[in-house]
Description:
Elements: H1 2-20, H2 31-35, E1 47-61, E2 65-78, E3 88-94, E4 102-114, E5 117-122, E6 128-134, E7 137-143, E8 152-161, E9 170-171, E10 178-188, E11 191-198, E12 206-222, E13 238-260, E14 278-286, E15 294-295, H3 300-309, H4 314-317, H5 324-330, H6 337-351, E16 353-354, H7 366-372, E17 374-375, H8 377-390, E18 395-400, E19 418-425, E20 428-432, E21 452-456, E22 462-466, E23 473-483, E24 489-497, H9 499-509, H10 514-524, E25 529-536, E26 545-553, E27 557-560, E28 563-566, E29 588-589, E30 594-603, E31 608-612, E32 617-620, E33 626-635, E34 638-647, E35 651-652, H11 657-672, E36 675-679
Parallel strand pairs: 1-10, 16-17, 23-30
Antiparallel strand pairs: 1-2, 2-8, 3-7, 4-5, 4-8, 6-7, 9-14, 10-13, 11-14, 12-13, 14-15, 18-19, 18-21, 19-20, 21-22, 23-24, 24-26, 25-26, 27-28, 28-36, 29-35, 30-34, 31-36, 32-33, 33-34
Helix pairs in contact: 6-8, 7-8
Amino acid sequence: xMRKYVLALISFIVLGQLAxxxxxxxxxxxxxxxxxxxxxxxxxxxxxxxxRKTNTKFNYSQxxxxxxxxxxxxxxxxxNKEGYDLANQQIGMYQGTSDEELVTSLKAxxxxxxxxxxxxxxxxxxxxxEEERSKTLKVKKFTMPDIQDGCIIEFKYVFTSPFYSxxxxxxxxxxxxxxxxxxxxxAPEYLVYRTHxxxxxxxxxxxxxxxxxxxxxxxxxxxxxxxQVNTLARGSQAQxxxxxxxxxxxxxxxxxxxxxxxxxxxxxxxxxxxxxxALQLELAxxxxxNSQVRNYATTWEDVAEKIYKSDNFGKELGITKxxxxxxxxxxxxxxxxxxKMMKVYDFVKSKMTWNDYYGVYKDKGVKKAYxxxxxxxxxxxxxxxxxxxxxxxxxxxxxxSTKANGIPFFPTRTGFNYVIAGAVLDNRxxxxxxxxxTGAPSILRTNLLNWKGRMVRKDGSSLLVDxxxxxxxxxxxxxxxxxxxxxxxxxxxxxxFTGHYAKGQRARYRxxxxxxxxxxxxxxxxxxxxxxxxxxxxxxxxxxxxxxxxFENEEAVEVIGNKMYVSPLLHLATKENYFKAETRTYPxxxxxxxxxxxxxxxxxxxxxTVESLPDPLSxxxxxxxxxxxxGVSQNGGKIIVTFQNAIKTSxxxxxxxxxxQQYYKMILEKEAEKIVLIKS
Length: 680
């Protein structure tokens, strides 16, 4: 009797667990999921991926051979308006010369809980559209309907690609929590892949083998047997359509993960995609029956050589006739090589307009782009390389992966999406980007400062190139301050910006009139009223930028009793400690090295003397990665404040995060200390 009771109890518990178990089948969204108002392990999350599944297999057809088919399904919970952007989804599709990737069987539904009932809103055709990003890339976009706080969106589709040598990355982590993810990838034994994992979460990759049989047809040509009637063909040979079967092994790669925490973006994060947990499969080689092994895995040198030899790349560098007359006139009477380089560089920047298409291969081609004045990145910068070589300046293309494109972790021809010119003068390399109209030699746009580039040469050799500027960006400021009787500080500030600091200031102010510039400065400098200002060398991109302005500040001085408290750095003070998270799992990306140097002179108001000054402070980060120096002293009737903060490396590893956090904590505490004056 007791045994029957125990069995009944176990059955009840099991059935109860099955009844409440999560159902991930498409369309089986539960009221419990919809009723959730926050994520169980990350209450501050704006949304969460409840389920993601990718199932990749290789279909075979007589005409196309093997094609990659991935069934994709995703279910996302949106908690509040900050998560609404997830209602906009997009899928990239590569377009080859004869083959293309396709998205089919798209089905998507938004679920809302209304008065205790589940309301379904299906994606309609007017919410689906395609956008052509370039000649080789299309994007299918869709926008989910009826998005509300607490809704769930769910979609699935089939992604078909004939390009089995390039498999898209399988992502397991996002900037929101991921509750459950399943990945299945089965490839025929004829296609051998290597796996490359990244991110800080163990993937638990499992491998599995299974047998598979496919049927195929072929024409059997043989002499007819005695008495055989050949109804398929006339002549001495019979043609017979025959069906055969082949059995082979499939190699499977499987990942199952649950409760993956969000990789949240912290200040100075760079491209988070470089640090998210994911799996990339690289085609190492193919070995089809009765065929030789064909190797796909390669080195970066091989990649660079193949790109250079492409008709859509290296061939463009030899086309010169269309610009000879213009360049000859441009350089007439110019003998200095650097002047020649700058004239050609500025000419290309002024003549050509970027059409917003990336790529290392031509779009229109240099000749047509020159005639029309527009082109993609490769059209413009391959043209620049060609012109510089024509002018007698040794120049080679440099391949780059932009920050948004990520860092390629293994050699691949799709790892680069940008190309610039590398000109050599007096054994010094100058990095030139004809796309950037406000660019200067070796001061590239920050989205290009992504580890290293690879210079490629005609002889097939290549060279890794550091993309960072040879010198840190600097901001030097000299301020003279006076304190009026009504406790208003009036001051004059003289500033000099170099490198990326100068580039940033030009981008911020260049296209504004004087009134707009003043308004922008007051937005950037808290508690400041700018009286007048002037810029020098605003349009000379290769020179330091200078800025002088007069100002008033009514909030930097406080009087309590007979004492006056002065905040010495005013608007130049560090605003906050950007590193607030307790821990960090990915590097700190400062983009480029920089140095801030401030010298502030404060005239002591009549009737006051110095009671106390902040003590000096000197800090050094580990491995000479940064340093801070601060001092306050009296010199006659003035107080002199000296400040220097330098970050000497662009990327600081996560293992130094606590050191950097403490570094900024000490800087903020020191800057918060007041100069104390007392009535004499």
